[in-house]
Amino acid sequence: MSMISLGKSVKWWEKGLQPNMKEITGAEDLVESLLKAGDKLVVVDFFSPGCGGCRALHPKLCQLAEMNPDVQFLQVNYEEHKSMCYSLNVHVLPFFRFYRGAEGRLCSFSCTNATIKKFKDALAKHKPDRSSLGPPKGLEEKELVALGANRDLSFVYNPQPEHTQQEVAPPPLPPVPIVSAAGSISPSLPLPLPLPIPLKSTSESTQDDKDKKLVSSGR
Fold first, then answer.
1. Which CATH class is domain 10-149?
2. Catalytic residues
3. d(Cα 210, Cα 219) in Å, to the nearest integer?
4. Which regions are flagged for Basic and acidic residues bias (predicted)?
5. C-beta neighbour count of 158 within 10 angstroms
6. Distance CA 187, CA 193 (A)
7. pTM above 0.85?
8. What is the CA 177 to chain-centroid distance, rounded?
9. Chain centroid to CA 84
10. Cys-Cys crosslink for 132: which of 20, 46, 101, 147, Cβ 3.0 to 4.6 Å?
11. How does pLDDT run along the chain (219 residues), one tens digit per residue?
């Protein structure tokens, strides 16, 4: 009977979980969970089943998750995802990273029950709703590149350019101002067509011919 009860016992990191707490299954799950969170504040909790500090801190984290239902908590089991944690440069436990929207990573730190104030201060600082322009950023690009280069992971990173050459149209040229003779600048308008030169009348042309003859004869 005791063996059966031990087999069905709940692991300490599974006790007291709130609806806004989720255990990550891999690199792809972590990346997608951060992107799906949108502008919501996300706390990534790196823990290990054999870490005494992680175990002691877990009940307090569950309480904080219950008190802050609008914050998403993501749990990463270090023992199951050692290679992924190494690529993310996580080498001390318990360890936390805060993310939100287009801002991406807000802060990262390690704390225990004795220094829980550090976690509470970070939560109070970053919790206020702030609208961030643009799509959620999630992990930093260098972290995504590191995950994609990790042969132990089945994660593929295909960076997508923000704009392709076909989508980006060259900006329109600004209108060239026209400087008048007086030095003032007028808006760019189509230049007027040259006025037709008036034809001389017969009398005027005859008079000009007489003048020319007089001048030539005078020489």
1. alpha beta
2. 51, 54
3. 14
4. 207-219
5. 6
6. 17
7. no
8. 39
9. 22
10. 101
11. 445 545 568 899 999 999 999 999 999 999 999 999 999 999 999 999 999 999 999 999 999 999 999 999 999 999 999 999 999 999 999 999 999 999 999 999 999 999 999 999 999 999 887 666 788 899 999 999 999 999 898 898 888 765 443 444 555 565 555 454 444 444 544 555 555 555 555 545 555 554 555 454 444
